[in-house]
Records
---
Amino acid sequence: MDRKIAIKVENLYKSFGKGESYISVIEGASFEVYKGELVALVAPSGAGKTTLLMMIGCVEDPTRGTIWLGDEKVYENRWLTRETRRIRREKIGFIFQAHYLIPFLNIIENVTLVPQVNGVPKEQSEKEAMELLEYFDIAEKAHSMPSELSGGQNQRAAIARALANNPEIILADEPTAALDLDRSFDVVKMLKKIATDQDVAVIMVTHDEAMLPLCDRILTIENKKVVSKESKEAKIL
Amino acid sequence: MINLAKREIEHTLGKFLVTSAGVGMLLGIVLIMIGVYRGMIIDAQVLIDDIGADLWVVQEGTLGPFAEASRVHEDLKNSIGIIEGVEKAEGITFQNMQVPTQSGLVRVMAVGYDPLGDLPAINESRLREGRTLKEEHYEMVATDKIGLKLGEKVALGRDIYTVVGITHGSVSSGGDPLIYVSLKDAQELQFLYSNARIRNDRARGIRGESSHMVNAVIAKTKEGYDVKEVANDIERWKHKSVYTYAQEKEILTKNLIERASKQIGMFTVILVVVSTIIIALIIYTMTLEKIKEISIMKLIGLPDRVIVSMIVQETLLMGILAFIAANMFAHAIYTKFPKRVVLEIPDALILFIVVLIASILASFVGVKKVLAADPREAIGG
């Protein structure tokens, strides 16, 4: 099968501080993530999972290396564009442990905010948002405020928001950490479905070993290097 | 496009309105301060306008009778009255005193003029009840703010006076309410000492002073004569200081209330600066309260202009609401002030522009915080 690369990382390094406070987190990471793939990123706490995720998301500056997002090389020892925020807005969807919906916007406004900033007309963005909310079975909550929804409903709304800009990549930082096992399975199954249905590459940071069999592949950080494994091999340290 | 400022304000409407009202009360005080200044200028001119004299003849070398003490002999009016170009001249006195009323002593300025003379000091259009002075003794016309009633008996000095008229809006240049008494009564009140004092002075060999003194002689000029030239003639021949209506007005507004107006001006500037700082602090705090949301907005890719626009719109709206609250507050309380407060639309418009500029300046602290917000804070680093 001809798989399209969504993320390509080559020889990526990340360190913090200088002199005595120097800490190296990632050393020479190289890997690829394909469209339609759900990849788990697992490693012990402090190993640099979120840092790696944020470097791919154009939020954290790498020390050196190369990052491609789709066909666009965005980083080669420096950001190749000043508009990293535009890249995030157009190519990436973020999901977090907490839903982080904007509390003063209702659900449909939260979902349509980024598309409208991207220039999608209001009516069209709302129509697409409603389709997403229906997909996640929370369409009846479209005009409710986040404070009026349960944790699970808010998390689904947050996933809908991450998908609203039709991203090529979804970066999920421990999206199941605050959920019980059943809900966690629901969310990961949902991410898997999104990856398959929408042909999106999903990288999910997780500490939950039970979720790994649902993923297509596992990336681990071992000795500051990123190692790719089949999901059945993976164990969280 | 979703208006983030509108949605955020709707979400915290009560808090936003209360905060705006608080700032508005502060700005209301600014309006009142400006109104006090306007009132001072108007008050300063009421008496001089009511008297309506063309010339003010006062003690030589003084800026009398309001800005400096002045005493001239009453009969000076006769020699001034015959000067070429003078139509009529009268003596007038001014004296601050305490008048007993049912609610206690009230500080007033007593204006003494000759009720049978040619230049009455009372502006009849201000009369609300009763009449002007008709007798040479023991009658008084009082302005309504003092609290005296028509026909009421009032003890002043050694005598009892009857209130025969009530005026409205008659005030001295300092804003004190006025009473009018006859020149003869005023001279006794001002220049006649008590018996004990007279005996004491005689024991010291001091000769009794004449009470036929006035603080100024006021004059009307004949039509066709140049007021300044007549004033120069009087100065040359009578060795007195003479001021025209315009000069006396300038003395009143410049020498008497200039310092007070500067003081009020400084207070006003300080209040505007304090209001700006308070708005800035409120906006800074409001920005800090939603810094997590701002980090999320940056993380999901919202451009700075969208977030900055939200902060600036919120600040401007707060400024506008505060300005409206300021006007409501000022109009609700300005009549309660003991002295005249004049609220004018041009002053309010200037304050509105100042508030808008102050709001934009205040929003900079919030904008700075927005620009510095790190999207990584959204996920805890």
Note: Residues 4-43+259-379 of chain B form one domain.
---
Amino acid sequence: MAVILFREAIKRGLAEALDSNPNVFIMGEDIGEYGGAYAVTDGFLAKYGEDRIIDTPISEAAFVGAGIGAAAGGLRPVVELMSISFALVAFDQIVNMASNLRYMSGGQIEVPLVLRAPTGAGVQLGATHSQSFETWLAEVPGMSCVCPSNPYDALGLMRTALKSKNPIMFAEPALLYGTRGEVPDEYYEIPLGSANVQREGDDVTLISYGAGMRVLGKVADDLSANGVSAEVIDLRSLSPIDYDTLLTSLEKTNRVLALDTARRTGGMMAEIAAELQERGSEWLDGPIVRVGAEDVPWPYSRNLEQESYPQPADVLTALKKHFNI
Amino acid sequence: MASQAKTKSGKPAKSAKRSAAASKSLENGATGAGSYSQDELLEMFRQMCLIRQFEIACGEHYAKGNIRGFLHLYIGQEATGVGALRPLTDQDYVVTHYRDHGHAISRGLDVNRSMAELFGRKTGLSKGKGGSMHLFDAAKRFMGGHAIVGGQFPLALGLAFSQKYQKTDGVTVCFFGDGSTNQGLYHETLNLAAVWKVPMLFVLENNGYGMGTAVERVRAGSPDFYTDVDRYGIDAVEVDGMDVLAVREAADIAIAKLRAGEGPLFIEAKTFRYVGHSYADGQKYRDQHEVDEWRRRDPVEAYPQMLIDHKLVSKKQIDQVKADVDAQVAAAVKFAEESPEPDPEELFDDVMA
């Protein structure tokens, strides 16, 4: 067991694939000579060469699309976007092309493509670099979407992603690259569609993913200090969603709060709340409560950004208001 | 499919060697015909004729309500698709736009299953899930049928990249229309294809209109597209897209160069569709005179007449091809009509692996 950085966990997953499969290659903006905007691919160019570590021009639609074509042609591309906000430039390719190809060809075309991108707010990058479009892609049939919250999950999910026969969005919370966690030496994978009960409890179920898990960790500590036992669940996989784990917890605690660090309206937790109330209404003691970022563009200023970003105190206030805990 | 013409018995035709002397002996627009065997000359006619009759049948069955959705016919452009794809072999990829029936037929996709796809039947190429704009046959490396204008460019780029990466000598042909050249992906893909030096053949089918908008109304600068690519250091030629031999000759040269690592390359074929953009098009944006002028050079009429005039084939042979094609299209319609619709549970198949 070693303690490593979140970015090192992703890097390890990529390196394993590069080492074991000659059809794996990585492309993206400044991933080679520069070493990657978040240093995930630092050193890869020297080790694997420019045929496999490919610096692209700033043409997101073209190089994401080329990744789709390369995947359809039998390779296993990993395409890095410098920000998930930049995925918007390539959305036509991701949605119309990658996720639809299998279906509209009647199952003939396979696109084993891993798309990686930093996601989320909290690092003062302003309106165009702080968004969380993994929630949009989670709605799209024909592709998977994951977002790890710690190094262990990042490595386990990356290994799975690199074996998937479908396109997959691998969203990496920008806030977490420099955080640490334990990763075992033994090989393991984390299957898609498996949520993780990070902390067991009886009084309330707290659900989030990615950077939201840091907020929920503090909330659970605070609740615990006041004698309230929270069950904390990390979705890990936004598509597919592990509703079995969520419903099992709901049946036990009878209360749910779901946290988005992205905008609340139309967010991931809107879908979670709708599904849970429909499938688990008989176990609910109250409304399914959502906490999320404000419905405004992300501001640059530190205090304004934190005003929008959901804080542990916001979650605690909501729990007090709705559940009186 | 065949890399060269097949005889009716299915045996490969005699070598289609290029002969400069033979070419020179042919005049009056028949330049190049002497480069190909009689079987190959007839095969090019057969394909164009099959496309024409297939499309006419599609129009009839759209009017009857058997084919729904959007239907974009290839009538008038047959020479471009057939000429460009004849040099390909099994290892090569084809990527195209939503006006894809002609390319599918030229690539040798099953005509019955193509028609069944348009009818939305279980026996269709995509099991009825794709429709007219999304024809696929992975076994023949026919990678669609793409209906977001210009969206097919990077798919073709990536396929060509995979061919280079895997050190095959396969090539990828990407068809696109003049309308798609105003998308950013056109320029992005030209640039990346040139940077990566991939074996990709850009085949522009310039039919003069992006849906109902004439090229010159929305394009700055020269009306010629083949000069666009000078900026990217890509070699390009312009050909008469109504002349199957002119397109074929350009494609022969281009494909050979691509296999030798001299990619990417670009062909602009000046062509025309006689019918509307889609079946619903009232064609208010152009007058009949323009259509009539282009039809005077109709490849499905002019090409076989030229072959007969030069005694390269007989009228009897041409008539036989026409009769065979009519029977084949009738059989395809019958196959489609008699095929079942997809089972309801198939709705959930093929979403994910």
Note: Chain B has twelve helices and eight strands.
